[in-house]
Amino acid sequence: xxxxxxxxxxxxxxxxxxxxxxxxxxxxxxxxxxxxxxxxxxxxxxxxxxxxxxxxxxxxxxxxxxxxxxxxxxxxxxxxxxxxxxxxxxxxxxxxxxxxxxxxxxxxxxxxxxxxxxxxxxxxxxxxxxxxxxxxxxxxxxxxxxxxxxxxxxxxxxxxxxxxxxxxxxxxxxxxxxxxxxxxxxxxxxxxxxxxxxxxxxxxxxxxxxxxxxxxxxxxxxxxxxxxxxxxxxxxxxxxxxxxxxx
Amino acid sequence: xxxxxxxxxxxxxxxxxxxxxxxxxxxxxxxxxxxxxxxxxxxxxxxxxxxxxxxxxxxxxxxxxxxxxxxxxxxxxxxxxxxxxxxxxxxxxxxxxxxxxxxxxxxxxxxxxxxxxxxxxxxxxxxxxxxxxxxxxxxxxxxxxxxxxxxxxxxxxxxxxxxxxxxxxxxxxxxxxxxxxxxxxxxxxxxxxxxxxxxxxxxxxxxxxxxxxxxxxxxxxxxxxxxxxxxxxxxxxxxxxxxxxxx
DNA sequence: AGCTCATTAATTGTCCGACAATACTACAAT
DNA sequence: ATTGTAGTATTGTCGGACAATTAATGAGCT
Lengths: 247, 247
Hints:
Two copies of one chain form a homodimer.
Chain A (H helix, E strand, L loop, with lengths): L12 H14 L12 H8 L3 H13 L3 E2 L8 E2 L5 H13 L4 H22 L2 H17 L8 H19 L2 H21 L6 H17 L3 H21 L10
Antiparallel strand pairs in A: 1-2
Helix pairs in contact in A: 1-3, 2-3, 4-8, 5-7, 5-8, 5-9, 5-10, 6-7, 6-9, 7-8, 9-10
Chain A binds a DNA duplex through α3.
C-alpha cells in the first residue's frame, strides 16, 4: 500500500492560546463588552507564561475580537460586525491594484438591486437612520458650511451602509463592505475637483430616500443607478482616468 | 481661544514595530518570498526588545503578511490573497444569524451580472480555469462516481470563484467572497436531500461555460440566473425552510 | 448620603536574561 | 547518493523585574 501521510501540523502554544480565547469569545462565555481578565490571570489559568498569553492577545486584537477603549488600559471583548471584513479588504487590496473602473462596475451591479431591496424591506428604525445619514450629508455640505473632504466621503459611504441596513440582509451588507472601503479613497481623489459633486450627491440621496420611504422599489433602483452613474461622470469631469489605481 | 485638543493616541511600541515592518513589506523593500531576518536582529535594528518584536510579528502573521511554511522555523514574507476576507466573514457571520434566503437573494443580485462581465472579459487562462472547474465537478459527480458532500460543495463554490477571475475585477471578487463562504454550508445541508441536484448543477455549469466561451453575455447572465433559481428550488424540493439559519 | 481628592493597588508595556527544542548547515561515513 | 553526526542559528517559552498609568479605595468635606 502506498499511504501518503501528510505532515501533521504542530502548533506553537501562543496559537493554541489564541484559539482557546477565540472560542470562548465566540461562544459567548466571554460576552461582548466585558473586560478581559488580566494577562497574568489568563496565564495562570492556561498554565503558560504571560509572554505567551500576550502574543495570543495580539492575534485576537488584530482579529478585532478585542479592542482597547480610548486611553483605557484593559482590553474589552467585542464582536466584530461588518468591519471585520474591512481589515481583510484593506490588506487584500494593498496587493492588487484596484482602479475606479473596478469599483464603479461593482457598484453598478450591486447597489441598484440593493436599493430596491431596501425600499421593499426597510423598517422604521433603519429608515430613520437612512434619513439621518442623508440629512447629515446635506447639512454638512450646504453652501454655507462645507465639511472636510475625508469626512464628506465617509458620510457618503455611511449612506450606503444605512441603505444596506434597510435591505436587512447581512450577506449583502458584508458583500457591500469591500466596495465602500474602496469607494472612500476613490471619492476622496475626485470630490474636490468637481464643484457640483456635493450638490449632486445631496440630490441623489434625497431622491433615493424618498423612493425608499414610499416603498417605490423601481424608483429607488433608478435613482441609485443614476447616483452611481454620477460618480463616473465626476471622474470624467475631473479629467481623471478611470483606470488609475485608487488609494 | 478655544482650542479643543483631542486625546492624542499614544501607540504602544509593538504596534509601531508592526507598522514599520508592514510598511517595509508593502513597499517591497522586504520582498515576498524571502525569509524574515531573525527576531533578535530585528530587535537590534529597531532598538527594542525581542519580546516586543515578537508581539509585532504575531500581528503581521494574523494579517497574513507573514506565513510559516510547513514545519519551517523562520517565517516568510507573503502577499495576502482574497481569502484574507474569509476569516473576517466567518467571524462576522457567527454572530448574526444568516438564512439561506439571505444568501440566495445576494446571489441573485450579484452573480448574473458577474457572469455577464465574465463573458465579456475573460482571458484564455481564466477561461481554462473555469472550464477545468466545471469539468472537475462533472467528473466527480457523474453517476458512476460521486464524491463526498463537502468536497462537492467546495467545487461548486470554486466554480463561482473561477467565474470571478474571468470577470477580472478584484472588487467583485472580494464582494463575492462572503456569499461563497456562506454558500458552502447552505448547499451542504441541501445537496444530498435532492437526488437530481448534482446533475442540474452539472448542466447549469456547462451552459454557463459555453456562454462565457462564446462571449455571449446575455446568455451567460440568463443561465446563471437559472442556476441560482435552482438552488432555491432545491431547498423547496428538500422541504427545508428558506429561513432557517445556515451553518 | 453624595462628592472631591489623595493614596494605594492592579495592570499593562517593556525590558533583561535564560534555556530547551529543533531546523539548518557542513561534513564524514557507508 | 543516501545516511549519520556534530555544531550553529533561531524560535518558543519561561522566570522575573520595573516604570507608567489606570482603576479602586478610603478620607475628608458639604
